[in-house]
Amino acid sequence: MSATDTQTPAAAPQDAAPVHKSWWRALMRDRAAMLALILLTIIVIAAIIAPLIAPHDPNLNSRSVMQPPVWTERGTWEFILGTDGQGRDILSRILYGTRLTLLIGLVAVGIGGVIGSGLGLLASMYPKIDPWVMRLNDMMLSFPAILLGLALVAVAGPGVWPVIVALGIASIPDCARIARSIGIGVMGQEYIEAGRAVGLSDWTIFRRYLLRNSISSIMIFLSLRFGQVILIGAALSFLGLGARPPASELGMMAAQGRDFLLFAPHIATIPSVVIFLIVLCANVAGDALRDVLDPRLKS
Amino acid sequence: MIETIINRLLVSIPVLFGVLFLGFALVQLAPGDPAAVQAGPSATPEIVAKIREEMGLDQPMIVQFGRYIERLAHGDLGRSLISNKAVSSELAAAIVPTLELMFASLIWSIPLGIAMGTLAAVWRGSLIDRAIMAISVAGVSLPIFFICLLLIQFLGVKYPIFPFIGRGGPLWTVDGLRHIALPALSLGLIFIGPVSRMTRSSVLEVLRLDHVRTARAKGLTETQVILRHGLRNALIPVVTLVGLQIGYLLGGAVVTETIFSYPGIGRLAVGAILSADFPLAQGTILVLALGFILVNLIVDILYARLDPRVQKK
């Protein structure tokens, strides 16, 4: 991974505006990536407006328990995706669950992205603190996300917040490493030297040149990270360490369907497929964006 | 070489301390007063105070941390609050199954991932390449619990070929192999994607180098060129990747073990955390973290051995 990632900065900062335009053009040509982006947009919008479009109360127990989805023999249009073991409408729970799952991923990646790229960019700007940041990074890399998650949940008890914090912290070292390598590429550019020569303050250089020219590459890395974070968060919720009932979260919904796997497999399958789609779309779109930015893969 | 190893060991020391402190903090942050628990519900405040003194709980934090490490050095991790067995013996019973599961998952998935990645690189841009890359992307996007549930549903229930609960025995017995089949299949599947993607990009890079052109020029067959000059050099970054992905594998193992009721460290950890069994939770997290550090250490040393350029740095 690092081999391709270190190459990214060389392409990004040089002529920011034209690259930006050709991104979109190249993306448009990549049909899989476009499809992924469209699907992801639909999922995100559906999750945001969940209260408006959910046909039922996600926590309301109806009398039809374990009703199969509409495309099966016994399905009805009242419960399009069927009902779960407690008679709750799966479509409504999926809409709300996607909300929570996306939120966990976004906040965690946000925490990791802001702190991580801050550290990485600072390290690229001030070579003196660079070794210290990298050492700290190495140490943090020794705690994989799942371990941090387990440890935090062990202390704080199961819940959404310990999971978000753990995933956020676990994302810091990777973001810092990427931001640093991107930042070093930017700091080597002539406009930085020019800015220094006309006496701009460090803060101005950071804000106006370093941050602006690195942010798109960092965002692309974060979009790839987003998928992984969602998967770990869903796994923790599946194990009962994340979101707690009665909230709906996709991983937890899959876990609740586990007991009915034999006679009502849709209860576990539908939320799992939604997670798969979200992560797949994020990965495909992120990959495509990276390919567009990486000159070596473009050829 | 020795210098590299010593350097690497020195870097691990603060990390090791961090892990130990994490374990210590876990015990400290546990709700409830350990002295009161020890003394029992009918004890007077004086007795609780006396026990607190005996347990060293009135000492400063740093002294308590020192004592904690001393106890760890003697293999004393406390007792499980639920089973009342020594945490160390519970851990000892769970380590071998987890190692077996990891072994059984990697033994087939790494070679398969490398083969797929190499094929994709050699036929770059072809239908095979696209198919393999599509499978890999789908593979890294699948939630591991979904894979487990699907395998249970099809290979466990619909066509009951493999058992899907517990461990049958050591890996070399028939029953052991049958029981580990589905967990190892699930865990291995999530590993194929990253390995094949990494192998592909690495092989592509190496095939562009001069020595490969020389090998072609001297008339070796394409298979010889790829296997002897391409793949061999391309595997070096793959080794690092396997090391970096151990955390990923660990997460997968925790889920897999729990779903298949497989008696490993991961399931022990989840059970301990869910039942607020702090001493056991602390023990499992310590073992997982130490294992992770150890594997990374081995991978780094292996990497330095495989790639002489690393040593010069």
**What profile does the largest beta sheet of chain A have?**
none
Sheet-strand content of chain A, in percent, reads under 5%
**CATH uppermost class of chain A:** Mainly Alpha
Span of the ends, CA to CA of chain A:
18 Å
Uncertain parts of chain A: 1-18, 295-299
Membrane topology (chain A): Multi-pass membrane protein
Transmembrane segments (chain A): 32-54, 100-126, 146-170, 218-243, 263-286
Domain ABC transmembrane type-1 (chain A): 98-286
InterPro entries (chain A): BP-dependent_transpt_permease (IPR050366), MetI-like (IPR000515), MetI-like_sf (IPR035906), OppC_N (IPR025966)
Task: Describe this structure as you would to a colleague.
The complex is a heterodimer of chains A (299) and B (313). Chain A has helices spanning 2-5, 8-11, 16-29, 31-48, 50-53, 90-125, 130-141, 145-156, 160-187, 190-197, 202-238, 250-257, 266-293, 295-298. Chain A has 14 helices and no strands. Chain A has 299 residues and is mainly α. Chain A has one domain (29-55, 66-273): MetI-like fold (Orthogonal Bundle). Helix content of chain A is 73%, strand content 0%. The model of chain A is unreliable at 1-18 and 295-299 (pLDDT under 50). Chain B has 2 domains: 2-73, no CATH class; 87-311, Orthogonal Bundle (MetI-like fold). Chain B has helices spanning 2-29, 34-39, 45-54, 61-73, 87-122, 127-141, 144-158, 174-207, 210-217, 222-244, 246-259, 265-274, 278-306, 308-312. Chain B has 313 residues and is an all-alpha fold. The longest helix of chain B has 36 residues, at 87-122. The interface between A and B is large, with 46 and 55 residues.
Describe the protein's topology.
The complex is a heterodimer of chains A (299) and B (313).
Chain A: H1 2-5, H2 8-11, H3 16-29, H4 31-48, H5 50-53, H6 90-125, H7 130-141, H8 145-156, H9 160-187, H10 190-197, H11 202-238, H12 250-257, H13 266-293, H14 295-298
Helix pairs in contact in A: 3-13, 4-6, 4-13, 6-7, 6-9, 6-11, 6-13, 7-9, 8-9, 9-11, 10-11, 11-12, 11-13, 12-13
Chain B: H1 2-29, H2 34-39, H3 45-54, H4 61-73, H5 87-122, H6 127-141, H7 144-158, H8 174-207, H9 210-217, H10 222-244, H11 246-259, H12 265-274, H13 278-306, H14 308-312
